[in-house]
Design brief:
about 800 residues, mainly beta, disordered N terminus, 32-stranded mixed beta sheet, Immunoglobulin-like, Maltoporin, Chain A, 5 helices, six-stranded mixed beta sheet
Amino acid sequence: MKVLLITTILFCLCQICLCQVTGSVVNVNGQPIPLANITLVKPGDTAFVKSTVTNDKGAFVFINIIPGSYMLNYSCIGYQNIQSPLLIVSAGGKDVGTAVMKEEAKQLNGVVVRSQKLLYRQQPEGIVVNVESSLLTKGSSILEVLERSPGVTIDHHNNSIALNGKTGVMVMINGKLMRMSMEQLINLLNGMSADDIATIELLTTPGAKYDAEGSAGIINIVLKKDKAMGTNGGINITGGYGYREKASANARIDHNNGKTDIYGSYSFSHNRSYGTLYGNGSENVPALGGEASFDYHGTGKPVSNSHFARAGIDYKAAPGLTLGAGISYDNSVTENNSHNRCDYTLSADSVLYFNGYIQGISHWQNLIASIYLEKQWKQAGKINVDADYMQYNITSPTTVQGSFIDKNGNSAKVSRDSLFSPTQNAYGNAVIQVGVLKIDYEKQFGKNLKLEAGAKGTYTKSTSLSGIESFINGQWVSPAETANNMVMKEGIAAAYASLNMQVNASTSITAGTRYEYYDTRANNNQTGSTAFKRSLGQLFPSLFASKKLNDNSSLQFSYTKRITRPSYNDLASYVAYNDPLSVFTGNPLLKSTITNNIKMGYSYKRYIFSLLLSRDDNAIAQGQVTSSPSGYIVYISPQNITRQNSITLQTIVPVKINTWWAIKYTFTGGWHQYKMDYTPQPVVVSYWGAGINATQTFTLPKNFSAEVSGAYNSSSYFANSKSQPNGYINLGFKKELSNNRGSLQLSVADMLSSNIFKNYIGGFARLAFDTKAYIEWHGEGTKFPIIKLTYSRSFGTNQQKERRNNLSDEEGRVK
């Protein structure tokens, strides 16, 4: 507490006698002009001081201005340039009022401005990635783009997402929390086209207005929405090949007449992929009579086809009142064809062979419908009301045809044989329904004080039916321990308040708190019994402070408290088939993770540095090796890690070699320590780990450009596994066609076929059954680099304006 008090006092003492200049820009019809360029200059010699662009309401602000005499220049493609009269700016600041710009009588044709937004941008809550700035975005899935983002790690084998080395990440799409299991979420993101993305927000320390869920932070995926006037749109068509063929197509359209904005998009993707899992090790297997070594080889050849469509409307019903509605629908089908083989050596002359063919179809249907109201008053502030309904339908039937024999070809003799049956059927059906009602209010008190407050209610109902059937003695047998027929209901009520104080022109402090109460219960439909019931109410405070040192540098400080609640799949006592000796299951005793974060940041021009200190109590680790209640087979289930401490440094360093060659380095690394006691013996692990991303962009003659990106991750530990270093290099080329005919992009992912995931399990911690294993996961890129060719074209009445808007982002960074 003393540290927070001292920091706040220092911020308040470091006051500079600076002021701000505000204003707005409209057209002759009184409609705001977004992204107009406003330049502050000295009178007489018109020496450049600062520049900025207007927001979507046509407003602009200059901060840290020294009192004196100035003039303003207004410019925007399609409008006549204007200049303000002489302005006298005093210590109290200056509001220049509203400027009116007239449209130009003549149109410019064939203007191509070759510029782009910054790839990375820092805000108090975290890093914003402008994915449109990367040549490798076109033709990729959202999951592939997310995997290339700084600090993000995707574990394809265990279906998990980590941010800055920590799991417990929550994912939002357009600010809406995706309440589904991580496996379901990864499948959803893998089927959605990245052509729909505008930005990815990596929020390691979200404020009070965000859900407290997500101990490692929130990843918010923001989809594109064209705000330009008139009718605009675009298409992307991609063809590619890796191990097998890939194809995708995306089309979007937007019509905005200033009063009504109607938009829609559709994406389709086809992907025939490949993956191989190798493993070897040893364990003490009661079902086989004792110690056994194993050698495993599994090959998967999934084929997926996905459709994603969305549409919406924004309507300005009256001055200050906007109504809107939107709907999105995703339909994805993946055929899983796997061949698994494993040799078990019990002694020199005793070997058992498992050979299994797994065929399954996963069908995902996801619907999200939203309506909203936004009302703004000049004096009373602004209120937003959002209502959302989400429904996820998942079916995943699977058939296993296998044999488990000895070296003489005879069926293996085991004391229990249901999971060793040559024919197994696994079935899974789930329906998740989510309703959300949210109210947010903003009120500006003078120029230096702003209040944000709101309330949110979420209700979730999930029904799940799953199990395993074994064909034994001519009939299907479904052991009770493999069946799951559950209904889960969860209600979350939340309220927050946040106060932002502009101490002076260079210093701001935001303090807030959020209260959340949740009640979760699950019932067994077959027995009527309660599987689990949990409720908890808790406060989640947050504090943010920022100090602008000068025009080039600033400091940030934040503290947040967050939570990760176990998902339904984590808690449910279902059983899913893995192999004859192990099954996947949940853990009804799983606890919520509570996280405290302290973050300090420093920015100098486009250089970004941050240091994050975090403490997780009861962190959730997926896929841990434990014993079944009978001690007979292996349970693969989530478990709580007693504590996890992390000190993480993140830096973003841009290097401009010359006018046509630029490099962006991102480094994330630090010290981690965790303790786990669900193992037969408590274990404490400490280690240093780091990852680096580098992106090189080249602006070449004749409208060509190129991008080379790569990443390297050092070895790391988590729970009972150690990951070996891995890395990859990607390559992209782009050609802008003349006369606004679009562009062609060629991308090569994992061009060195080096992105291999290697893990050791149990080498440093004694696990149930004394399991020790070495595992390698080879994705499709390790078989053959994935090559894609994409054609993109934009169209519409404001095509030239859109290109100019990209330039505005660059001009806004001129110092």
